[in-house]
Amino acid sequence: MAPHGETDLSRLLATLSPTLQEGEFYFASLRPEASGALADAARAAAIGTFREAEGLSLILPAAHTELPDGAARSTTQRLISLEVHSSLEAIGLTAIVSQRLAELSISCNVVAAFHHDHIFVSADKADAAVDALRGIQADAAAPGQ
Fold first, then answer.
1. How does pLDDT run across 59-80, given as a tens digit for each residue?
2. At what angle are helices 126-141 and 93-103 packed, to 10 degrees?
3. CA distance linking residue 120 with residue 107, whole number of Å
4. Chain mean position to CA 113
5. Euclidean distance between CA atoms 90 and 70, whole angstroms
6. How many alpha carbons lie under 13 Å from residue 53 in its C-beta half-sphere?
7. Distance between CA 46 and CA 59 in Å, rounded?
């Protein structure tokens, strides 16, 4: 079966198209036994989830402020979507993106979805992260690259 999306790293980088999404988000973790209205509302509001041994990790809009007792939450994050349709089988994209951001002391949390990769960064470093990603794209799209 052929992969869905782009697998060629040079084309991926030349067409990254990083887009800073509206709003702010945070990561939260609900205990495995979490139940009730607050847990149900958090699950429903999440834009992403992942089940871990320690509990359910959720990515929530910052406007969703109520969590059940015992839930943990991260600092506020901004979401940068890479608009290029990357294949889940592509090799090297995450490494290059995270390396460039690490060089600028920007922590990133990458979520690979079916069509696109999404980068969560500290809210106060979002603009610098977008600039860095646009730099990757410009470098890759430059003649002779």
1. 999 999 999 988 999 999 999 9
2. 130
3. 8
4. 9
5. 38
6. 0
7. 5
Tokens 């969590």 -> residue = 67
72 — alpha (psi -120 to 50), left (phi > 0) or beta?
A: beta
Place of tokens 């951001």: 101
Q: Distance between CA atoms of 122 and 53, rounded to whole angstroms? A: 25
Q: Can you tell me the distance from the alpha carbon of 79 to that of 18, in angstroms, rounded to the nearest whole number?
A: 10
> Quick check: pTM over 0.90?
yes
Render pLDDT for 93-121 as a digit per residue (tens, 0 to 9): 999 999 999 999 999 999 999 999 999 99
Provide DSSP, the chain: -PPSSB--HHHHHHT--EEEPSS-EEEEEE-TT--SHHHHHHHHH-SEEEEETTEEEEEEETT-----TT-EE---EEEEEE-S-B-TT--SHHHHHHHHHHHTT--EEEEE-SS-EEEEEEGGGHHHHHHHHHHHHHHHHSTT-
Alpha carbon separation from 40 to 54, 56, 64, 70, 75 (Å, rounded)? 18, 12, 12, 15, 22
